[in-house]
Write a structure and sequence with these properties.
The structure holds two protein chains of two kinds. By secondary structure, chain A is of the alpha+beta class. Chain A has nine helices and seven strands; from the N terminus they run E-E-H-E-E-E-E-E-H-H-H-H-H-H-H-H. In chain A, the strands form two sheets. In chain A, strands 2-1-5-3-4 form a five-stranded mixed beta sheet. A two-stranded antiparallel ribbon of chain A has the order 6-7. Chain B is mainly α. Chain B has a single domain, classed as 3 helical TM bundles of succinate and fumarate reductases (Up-down Bundle). Chain B contains nine helices and no strands. In chain B, helix 8 runs antiparallel to helix 9. Classes of the chains: A alpha+beta, B mainly alpha. At the A-B interface, strand 4, helix 7, helix 8 and helix 9 of A face helix 1, helix 2, helix 4 and helix 8 of B.
């Protein structure tokens, strides 16, 4: 199939970028989106041009590294999918596809489609330590956790930090990411102990990084590859308001 | 501590200060307390809390206001006496006076914070997308709360000018019971078809604003349990449709039934 690409090209943080046109004529519908970009890059290398830089790692939808805006939607047209799990069969022959980096002031573009998501790392760091023992694996029955609680905590822990929630949010809010991290630890007995100071610190860090306000449009939940529920955001708000008293 | 007490190279204090015991919270100084309050006020979650609480208060007020308006649907003779009596009852009640100040403060805070939040969000967004199709993943009215709010603000200005200002500073005629005749004022204004049309359009904007606002406020203050969340959605729908349809019904009825 034939695909016309409009890809955001930007040398580095300082230079202004622009969309560049590329025409691919030999795209296999079974290629993943990233494989399609690989074939473009092979061609660019052969032509001695600078290849398009983009983040990727596992290519099986669990690492959270890949992530670009495809035709104006985070990770492309399918809901709850990472970019690497999107395949060219989701597009039609002759389609024009816009590929842009995730945009937010807190996610500066490093090069082409690569953005700096270290703001997420700093939010996690602000959460500090948990009292979980880092020695040998503790005896499983020494700390009893109900099945429902364990499942709920794991649902939150499933967040891979890809940044799609921020990219798709009209306010570039990191509420879903931060909330997932806060809820994950606040639910478990190991994390409950420091939950109050953790929510205060992580929310403060989220604000310091320059993310916007959550408007509860719930767009993040639609795009999230891990289907992290927006109810985690409500839970974060609850934890935050409780921590004030 | 002056600068000479610090190592010029590392900035580490050369004077032995009291060792802080992490188990005993130290009493923060006045500046530290002020800093904390400032930080709290500028936090994204606190600002949304303020929006939510003022919004919910305004939601509550709308119910009381609607209860007053629905009296206009009574048969003409009863309605005039009843409506004027009700307005007199409210204007003479000290409790209502206090509430009205809270109400004005809430409207102003809600609008001002909305502006502050919008500006901050613009800053957080940075560069726009060249091709933006993000609207596909959320409801339009949840993304256009600012626009809907502006329509409501515009409506409020007209509304306050036509009724509140007239009652406070204008000279209203009295009805045959000697009460200020707000009823006749309202009916006269609603004779104008354009006015009724704008009124109804603004009530539609209000309905959408409430539809997202009520549910969003509940989320912001932290109602997270799936069961309550579903109730809130249902209550939000019933409330928003009830309020906007209720308010819109009165001018339509008055316009077509009494002229």
């Amino acid at each position: 199939m034939r695909i016309q690409l409009k890809i955001w090209r930007q040398e580095n943080r300082a230079t202004p970028g622009q969309l560049a046109n590329y025409d691919l004529t030999d795209v296999n519908p079974d290629m993943s989106f990233l494989e399609m970009l690989d074939t473009l890059n092979e061609r660019l290398v052969r032509q001695r041009e600078r290849p398009v830089e983009f983040d990727h790692d596992c290519r099986e939808g669990i690492c959270g590294q890949c992530g670009v805006m495809i035709n104006g939607r985070a990770h492309g047209p399918l809901p709850n999918t990472t970019t690497c799990q999107l395949h060219m069969r989701s597009f039609k022959d002759g389609d024009i596809i816009y590929v842009e980096p995730f945009r937010a002031t807190a996610f500066p573009v490093k090069c082409d489609l690569k953005v700096d998501r270290s703001a997420f790392d700093r939010i996690i760091q602000a959460g500090g330590f948990t009292s979980a023992s880092t020695g040998g694996a503790p005896e499983a029955n020494s700390m009893l956790i109900g099945h429902d609680v364990a499942e709920a905590a794991f649902d939150a822990a499933a967040c891979i930090g890809c940044g799609a929630c921020v990219a798709t949010c009209k306010n570039s809010s990191a509420a879903l990411f931060t909330a997932a991290k806060i809820t994950h630890l606040a639910l478990l007995p190991q994390g409950k102990i420091e939950s109050r100071q953790r929510v205060r610190r992580m929310v403060r860090q989220m604000d310091t990084e320059g993310f916007g306000h959550c408007s509860n449009t719930e767009a993040c939940q639609v795009e999230c590859p891990q289907q992290i529920s927006v109810l985690h955001i409500a839970r974060m708000n609850w934890e935050y308001n409780r921590a004030l008293f | 501590m002056s600068n000479s007490d610090r190592d010029p190279e590392t900035g580490i204090s050369l004077v032995d200060g009291p060792v802080e015991n992490p188990d005993v919270p130290s009493t923060p100084s006045k500046e530290a307390k002020l800093r904390r309050v400032k930080r709290w006020l500028s936090g994204t979650l606190s600002q949304k809390n303020l929006m939510a609480l003022t919004g919910l208060f305004l939601c509550f007020f709308l119910i009381i206001h609607l209860a007053g308006n629905l009296q206009l649907l009574l048969p003409t003779e009863v309605a005039q006496w009843q409506f004027n009596f009700y307005s007199k009852l409210l204007s003479e009640n000290i409790f209502i006076h206090i509430i009205s100040y809270v109400l004005f403060a809430s409207i102003i805070a809600h609008a001002l914070y909305a502006l502050v939040i919008t500006i901050n969000n613009r800053r957080a967004n940075g560069k726009r997308y060249e091709y933006d199709h993000r609207g596909a993943s959320s409801k339009w009215y949840s993304r256009r709360m600012g626009l809907l709010g502006t329509v409501i603000l515009f409506f409020l200005i007209i509304h306050l000018r036509d009724f509140w200002y007239e009652v406070q500073f204008g000279h209203l005629p009295v009805d045959k019971d000697g009460q200020e005749d707000l009823y006749t004022l309202v009916v006269t204004v609603y004779r104008n078809g354009w006015y009724v049309l704008i009124y109804v359009l603004c009530m539609i904007a209000l309905g959408y604003h409430l539809l997202h606002g009520f549910f969003s406020a509940a989320r912001t203050i932290g109602i997270y349990h799936p069961r309550y969340v579903n109730w809130i959605r249902v209550i939000g729908w019933v409330y928003s449709i009830g309020i906007s349809a209720g308010f819109a019904l009165v001018p339509i009825y008055v316009h077509f039934a009494l002229t």
